[in-house]
Amino acid sequence: MADIKKLDLNDPDTRSADIVAGNVEALKALFPEAFKEGGIDFEVLKQLLGGAVDDRDEKYGLNWHGKRKARQIALTPSTGTLLPCPEESVDWDTTQNLMIEGDNLEVLKLMQKSYAGKVKLIYIDPPYNTGGDFVYPDDFGDGIRNYLEITGQIEGGRKLTSNPETSGRFHTEWLNMIYPRLRLARALLSANGLIFISCDDNEIENVRFIMSELFGEENFFAQIIVQSNKRGQTYKDVAKTHEYLVVYGRSDEASLFELPKEGDTLPFEDSKGRFDLWELRNRNPKFGRHNRPNLYFPFYVSPKLTDDNGYSLISLVRDDEFTIEVTPKNSEGKDGCWRWSKDKVRSVDTSSGTAVVVARQKRDGEWNIYEKSRKSTTKPKSIWDETSVINEQGTTALGALGLAGAFDHPKPVELIKKIVAIATDTDDVILDFFAGSGTTAQAVMEYASIENSSRRFILVQLPEPLDDSIAEQSTAAKWCSKLHLPHTIAELTKERLRRAADKVKSDNPMFSGDTGFRVFKLASSNICAWEPNPADLENSLLKNAEHLAQGRTEADVLYELLLKLGLDLCVQIEQKEITGKTVHAIGGGALMACLADGLTKDVVEKLSAGIVAWQKKLSPAVDTRVVFKDSGFADDIAKTNMAAILNQNGITDVRSL
Q1: Angle CA 563–566–570, to nearest 5
Q2: Which residues contact 293 (CB under 8 A, 6 or more apart)?
Q3: Domain residue limits at 637
Q4: Single residue among 454, 488, 523 that ends a domain in this structure
Q5: How big is the chain by its Cα radius of gyration, in Å?
Q6: Residues 607/635, Cβ–Cβ less than 8 Å
Q7: Within a domain: 533
Q8: Tally of domains in the chain
Q9: Cα–Cα distance for residue pair 279/295, rounded to 1 Å
Q10: 488 and 559 share a domain?
């Protein structure tokens, strides 16, 4: 008999992704023989891995008190949800950008189903470990309650804890904060994705250790030195002028784009265009005829035949015209090798006025062979010392938006734009889960306006309360008062995004790209937990008759369904009235939902027929799931009839809340 499965808080579909179960399934697919009734046979698994499992206590790596718990916190699913806030958003109906208020640990968990493998770039500027308030006191048991207490939404009012060096846990507390977040972040990156982390001297070694453990040492790209302060911190013995960007890839598929060369860096010109001359010989004495014999061969130069610029033409064959033999010598004067093989030389033009390979005689009478390089890009360097990336520029940019002093030490927009340039393509997703001042969003919008691209951003920021009685928070709190905003950091982040969007549109009137953002806020699930009172079961039953939290809207429930079913929070949602009841179609019919009351037997027959007809018209590429509100059915007969009709028409995944 057809039936509608009821969803509750114990159902996997109402929780964020179960990472442990996913890991086990992946392992089982690779090594099915290591699984037996009751779990994994680790001895068999060890044999299948060639005995490579090291079960000794002493291993190379980074360990600290709480690491095991930090790992477990990352693996514990969240029962929370994200509530839509169209009234605080910009261009809600059309934007693909997200601004999420909440504890980033819980938000990262909730994002797993919808965004795993879809983020191309993660940039974060986590709180530096300077002894100030920075640690989110993660609660292993109930992360949502922990978050609500931190933000003052329920009684408790926990504050972010300070981390003085005198505590004896100076590094430990910071590591416990950052580790589970980085572990969750990795799963969101695409196979060719990259993560950039801003860091200073206090935790740079630990960041490298953690990242090598989570991402693999082989996926380390660079530890970039960024000049953050030209004058330097003069209160120290050495005036420190820099910070770091630690860069890792998700896998060996990751790579960086090159940057445009600055200014007129191609000094020569022929009828084809501008070019530079690059020596074709490899000067490095480690490589030469002894170990690269295929790259050691002679060129023959013509003293008479020249290109547009008067450079001599070359050939791989000696004849009456090409008479001068040139072989490669390394920097020590020994037989070296060329950078190109004979086949590559044969594949390019060597005989016209715009020849790709030419020769030029030196003052001592010897000849050099050159490649005419027309390349206008260059690899990013490991030291970034442009004026545009110093921290002072971040403060200036904030002031240009009329928000001077709203944030301390905001990152420069040009710094993030440079990261976006080398790490992303036209329609990639960029995530920043320590959003702070919102620089990342402004950088993405500005860069998109330059390239006329459709890059998307996802920001996550804790709505940490601001107190004007605390010196470090007073300026930000005063800004909130001036703007008539709630006193939280996230409110200022949103205000910066609105102003940055206006600036981008003003500076680029021809740009029609996305400068909006959808606001979502972390909250407890819309689905109520069963909490019986043994002393008053009758009232407990009455209180739990409605399974959805009081005060929540249809939109709240719809977006929780999106999250829990793995759909994008910016996916298209269509709406239609069928026999007086509102039905929503999400993702082209991948999910259909009717959360109306009054579903009697008579209504069900017409409603189900309308849903079937609409589903067939939409013709989704995947099986459709249909969700109803459990209390919306008048009785079990109506509920059973709905399931039967839908099942008969090929819609077999029918659920109720």
Answers
A1: 65
A2: none
A3: 547-656
A4: 523
A5: 31
A6: no
A7: no
A8: 4
A9: 14
A10: no
| Rounded to 5°, angle at Cα 183 from 409 and 557 | 90
**Structure tokens belonging to residue 394:** 């971040």
State phi, psi for 28 to the nearest 5 degrees: -65, -35
Same-domain status, 146 and 167: yes
Task: Mark out the alpha helices in 456-571 (DSSP H runs).
Answer: 471-482, 489-507, 537-543, 554-565
CA distance 624 to 89: 30
Evaluated on CA atoms 583, 584, 585, 590, the torsion sign reads negative
Q: What does DSSP assign to residue 33? A: G
Residues 206-251 pLDDT 10s: 999 999 999 999 999 999 999 998 888 777 788 899 999 999 999 9
Q: Cβ distance 229 to 390 under 8 Å?
A: yes
Q: Which residues pair with 347 in a beta bridge?
A: none
Q: Are residues 41 and 120 in the same domain?
A: no
Complete DSSP assignment for 484-516 = T--SBHHHHHHHHHHHHHHHHHHH-TT--S---
Residue matched to tokens 């470090």: 472
The segments of the chain whose pLDDT lies below 50 read 135, 530, 532, 537-538, 540-543, 545
pLDDT at 76: 87
For residue 121 the two structure tokens come to 């770039």
Check whether residue 215 and residue 325 sit in a common domain.
Answer: no
What CATH number should be reported for the domain holding residue 147? 3.40.50.150
349 and 313 in one domain?
Answer: yes
Predicted pLDDT at 541 = 44
- Can you read off the two tokens belonging to residue 108? 């990262």
- Would 102 be classed as within a structural domain? yes
| 212 and 176 in a common domain | yes
Tell me the one-letter amino acid at 11. Answer: D
Cα 43 to chain centroid, rounded: 37
Structure tokens that stand for 106 in this block: 């819980």
* Sheet of 312-315, strands arranged across: 268-270, 273-279, 367-373, 357-361, 312-315, 299-306, 324-326
Q: Are β-strands 377-378 and 324-326 bridged in parallel, bridged antiparallel, or unpaired?
A: unpaired
pTM, two decimals, is: 0.84
Q: Which residues contact 142 (CB under 8 A, 6 or more apart)?
A: none
Asked if 344 and 326 sit in the same domain, the reply is yes
